[in-house]
Amino acid sequence: MIRVAAAPVSFGVFELTADSAGLPDPDAVLAAIAAAGYEGTELGPPGYLGDAKTTRRRLDRAGLELAGAYVPIDFGPEQDLGELDEVLDLLPPSARPVLADAGPRRPFSWPPLTAGVERAVELARTRGFAPVFHHHGGTRIERPDEIERLLELSDVALLLDTGHLALAGGDPVQGLRDWRPRIEHVHVKDVRPGIDTLAQAWTEAGFCPLGDGVLAMDRFFDELEGYAGWLVVEQDRLDVPVPTASADQARSRQWLRARGF
To answer: What is the crossing angle of helices 242-257 and 26-35, to 10°?
Structure first.
């Protein structure tokens, strides 16, 4: 069964803005997500929704479940898994720890990176969670060939992100076909024409409501038939007013409903 969630990143709240003043009130964000018809949300930066008790209270008040939490990690011999431990303290066992390379892109050797991923996966699994790996723009794992290599060298499950894959030169429909046995979490975005980089997407509202962009969203959802898990609608961006983000999230939810999701 597919369940549909949103995320604070669509309201301009993510790792790049975590320390910024003037972030939208978390209760207002959760209320907007619930009002748009979503069943769940991802966590956002650790602390944005409060400690574990406060997070649970806020989610219960909004009638939402926690689908997952994004955790960027600088994988390698000197990696620090303290933030992952901190995030796991906030999650119910049903939520997915979403592991991603902290970037930036630079020359690297596969063995230490893969070993780092395996250490993070082992920590999450030891604590009772089922982690997924998020290929992400601007990091060491973004292109289709890099995703393929990581899947060959590790047993981590994959999060497929339509927008990040498209900006890295991949085809979300083909990615879904190629990696389907490993895909256990999905982030879905559409991309406006003329958007070529993640920086553009963040600053120019390049990730748009579903159906408004250039990605083959209908084909993607046809191919998604049989998937069981969370489908998280996202529009990663900076400096967006809550009413604008709320309206866009509602449009995407309506688009999905019209297609039976």
So the answer is: 30
The token pair that represents 58 in the structure block: 């806020």
CATH at 162: 3.20.20.150
Kindly provide the residue ranges of all beta strands, DSSP E only, lying in the chain, ordered along the sequence.
2-6, 40-42, 65-73, 96-101, 132-134, 157-161, 183-188, 190-191, 207-208, 229-233
- pLDDT tens by residue, 106-152: 888 999 999 999 999 999 999 999 999 999 999 999 999 999 999 99
- Cβ atoms of 6 and 35 closer than 8 Å: no
Quote the number of domains for the chain.
1
What sign does the dihedral 148-152-154-158 (CA atoms) show?
positive
pTM for this entry = 0.96
Q: pLDDT tens digit string along 92-110?
A: 999 999 999 997 788 889 9
CB atoms within 10 A of CB 53: 9
Structural domain span for residue 186: 2-257
**Model confidence over 210-235: pLDDT tens digits?**
999 999 999 999 999 889 999 999 99
| Residues 159 and 133: beta-carbon distance below 8 Å | yes
- Burial (CB < 10 A; 0-12, 13-18, 19+), residue 151, is middle
DSSP code of 76? Answer: S
Nearest partner of 68 among 193, 148, 159, judged by Cα: 159
* Percentage, residues of the chain above pLDDT 90: 87
**Which amino acid does the sequence have at 49?**
L
177 in Cβ contact with 220 (< 8 Å): no
Helix or strand (DSSP H, E) at 46: none
